[in-house]
Amino acid sequence: MKGYGVVKTGQPGWLDKEKPVPGPLDAIVRPTVLAPCSSDTHTMHGGAGPRENLILGHEAVGEVTEVGGLVRKFKPGDKVVVPCVTPDWTGRYIQEGKYNAHDHGMMGSFKFLTAKDGTFAEFFHVNMADANLVSLPNDISPEAALMTVDMMSTGFHAVELAEVGYGETVVVTGIGPVGLMAVAGSRLKGAGRIIVVGTRPNCVKIAKEYGATDVVSYKDGDIVERIKSLAGGSVDKVIIAGGNAATLTQAVSMVKPTGIVASVNYYDAADTFTIPAFMWGLGMANIDIRGGFCPGGAVRIEKLLNIIKYERVDPAKLITHRFDGFEKIEDAFMLMDKKPADLIKPAVFITW
Fold it and tell me: How does 286-307 read in b/e, with b if 16+ C-beta sit within 10 Å?
């Protein structure tokens, strides 16, 4: 079969691979809607360490083509939504209630990009299908469902990490698709003021539609001082959905004592975090710094689909560029890598 991914670090391209085979609990899926992600391009450039001969992609809606002998909920022909995080539900960390990225080591549940080939292929493998696949509802569009598997799940996880509460002032730095979903999630959790940091006009427009009350541009000077001036002091929570290692320093310096900094940003392996001790109250400010990958599995995606069904959030607004045909994965991927000013999220629609 063919797939698109990393030929070697820094070199994307088409790959010829063996078609995957399902284990007794697994399924093979053929993608029908795909979305490239910054994590894919970051991985291609070596941000997560050297990679070669790896098919990329971790956001997909598709059709089941084959199932293992012990799969009970799905059969060939079923339309499914595929979470980007597919845990091994027998793992120790899962049994301890750590449902996000740790079944057999750090990020072990994020199997696409790390442990096996991803979704940019004619066929891809999903482990433990009964626990890791979701039937596509008839009343939800495939593209809206596609946005749940990573963008919505990750953005909402940032809100969960930050423990956003009623009436709180929340800052979201980085209003790409994940940051925009963090804005929407913060509003659902009852945040009062939501200050976003970003510059792209289309992202700013959607941020306001999702609930942003104020917009700060990093091009106009020190964002920390400007945000503190807007808020009349430090803020309750800061969500980092974009930026670099310095963004964490900014976040700690603008959050109040007892506040929370929650990061779902994908940093570079070469980054080093530096936080002056006085910003952290010499270690005594009770400021929590949290970072993590979104939880996985079917139940979480079912709940996110329910939010769409009852019109709480429309994540399909994130999709700004549409491509038709399997071969267009390359064009969509390169667009995501270049990130033109009018881009939020591309999607590829495939008819077999």
Answer: ebebeebbbbbbbebbeebbeb
Other C-beta atoms within 10 Å of 188: how many? Answer: 16
For the segment 136-154, the average pLDDT, to the nearest whole number, is 97
SS3 222: coil
239 and 266 in contact (C-beta within 8 Å)?
no
Q: Which of 6-15, 70-79, 277-286 has the lowest mean pLDDT?
A: 277-286
Contact 162, 262 (CB under 8 A): yes
Percent of the chain predicted with pLDDT > 70: 98
User: Could you give the domains of the chain?
Assistant: 2-146+314-349 (3.90.180.10), 156-291 (3.40.50.720)
Return the amino acid letter for 111: K
Query: From edge to edge, which strands make up the β-sheet containing 193-197?
Result: 214-216, 193-197, 169-173, 235-240, 255-263, 288-291
